[in-house]
Design brief:
Blueprint: H1 6-28, H2 30-42, H3 46-72, H4 76-94, H5 100-117, H6 119-130, H7 134-145, H8 148-192, H9 205-213, H10 216-237, H11 239-245, H12 250-274, H13 280-299, H14 307-334, H15 339-367, H16 370-399
Helix pairs in contact: 1-6, 1-7, 1-8, 2-3, 2-8, 3-5, 3-6, 3-15, 4-5, 4-8, 6-7, 6-15, 7-12, 7-14, 8-12, 10-14, 10-15, 10-16, 11-12, 12-14, 13-14, 13-16, 15-16
């Protein structure tokens, strides 16, 4: 595949990076950022509240393969732009809810919007367009979008303090319309002008899907991804109440969670420096070990508060690199042909883990405390480490 010219590369990647930062901050990170505000305003339990996010992410998981198929067929700009506008409209509706059924209904449809404009949809565009440059493109997008949490947490809490959480949600909706939607349209329109990777004929989709699910490598990646998703989802979505239970002041907790984004960027920069010398598999294995170290650090914050720094560093860096490596390792192990379909299926599996995480955390907390939640998150890193190590072994065996 021909190399994308520098000007075209920049005009596609940088707008996508800013747009992804905006939609992640507005649609995803607004939930954990405003969780305590909703608990106080509505009087609903953590389990009731986080169940809505679980629903949204399950819907997103179910919709991701369909979004991938639509992108495979060349309608990426309509998918990303339309999903962004839908998401903005739904945030406006969210600002008006008063009943829990309304809260759940809005988050159900937000899940559909997420499937069409968050990372996996964006990465499908970049993989089809950039070919061998896709890793660099994905890295640049995630370097910028890794700051979404850093944008969302302090701004959501600051806005909620001045105009209430409903006003904060309206501001986020406006940012999606004014910033994200035009940038997605512009970037995807330029991407459509580039040569695209060959796609499978429609009649071979089922055959390709059957080969996929028979592959041990596919299932190793699936288990690794879902375990890492649960680890990150449990800790991030419960971090504010978790730190509150462990005696950390709210301002310090907000600062800590806001710094996870910069640590994601730091991890990605470290990956760029190391990738010429270390394989993708070794980098991914290192990420699972970083996540385990983060969980252990968080566990010790009650006795040694300064260990919170270690959690922020290792959780941010480890999962920041995972965001880049997921599409790269999928392409490396399972191929780039029909990438939208393959990545969409694995995105669904990853999102199922991420969807279950908030509610799993709430249930475990109700039967114990947040110490048990951290232990559960640690167990997920052990499962992820085992699965990716086996995938590495199988890939080496296949090549020899």
């Amino acid at each position: 595949m021909a190399t994308v010219k520098t000007g075209s590369f920049r005009s596609i990647v940088w707008p996508l990076a800013v747009a992804e930062t905006t939609v992640w901050a507005a649609m995803y990170y607004s939930f954990p950022a405003l969780l305590l505000e909703w608990e106080k305003d509505f009087g609903w339990s953590k389990t009731e509240l986080t169940g809505a996010l679980t629903l949204a992410l399950l819907v997103s998981a179910a919709a991701s393969p369909f979004a991938g198929r639509i992108i495979d067929r060349g309608y990426g700009r309509f998918m990303l732009t339309g999903s962004t506008l839908l998401g903005a409209f739904l945030l406006v509706l969210l600002s008006q809810v008063t009943q829990i059924w309304q809260f759940y209904a809005v988050w159900f449809f937000i899940g559909i919007a997420m499937a069409g404009c968050l990372y996996d949809a964006c990465f499908s565009i970049l993989t089809h367009t950039m070919g061998d440059q896709s890793k660099r493109a994905i890295t640049l997008v995630t370097l910028v979008a890794g700051l979404a949490g850093t944008v969302s947490f302090p701004s959501a809490n600051a806005l909620a303090g001045v105009i209430g959480w409903r006003g904060a949600i309206m501001v986020f909706a406006g940012a999606m319309v004014v910033i994200a939607a035009p940038l997605f349209w512009s970037a995807c329109s330029k991407a459509d002008q580039q040569p695209q990777i060959a796609r499978l004929p429609a009649g071979r989709k089922m055959e390709a899907g059957l080969r996929l699910v028979r592959s041990p490598l596919f299932w190793c990646l699936a288990i690794c991804f879902i375990a890492m998703a649960i680890n990150h989802g449990v800790l991030i979505n419960h971090l504010l109440p978790l730190l509150d239970e462990r005696g950390v002041h709210k301002d310090t907790a907000i600062l800590a969670i806001s710094m996870i984004g910069p640590m994601q960027v730091t991890g990605r920069l470290a990956m760029i420096a190391a990738e010429r010398h270390v394989s993708t598999s070794i980098l991914f294995i290192t990420c699972t070990l970083a996540a385990a170290t983060a969980a252990l650090s968080l566990y010790g914050t009650s006795a040694i508060p300064s260990l919170l720094i270690g959690f922020v560093l290792f959780q941010g860096a480890g999962h920041g690199v995972v965001s880049i490596l997921r599409p790269v390792i999928i392409a490396e192990y399972l191929g780039r042909q029909d990438f939208g379909l393959i990545a969409g299926v694995l995105a669904s599996i990853y999102l199922i883990g991420y969807a279950l995480a908030p509610t799993l955390g709430s249930v475990i907390w109700e039967f114990g405390d947040y110490g048990r939640v951290i232990e559960f998150a640690l167990a997920m890193t052990i499962i992820a480490f085992t699965a990716i190590s086996l995938a590495w072994y199988l890939s080496r065996k296949r090549k020899t």
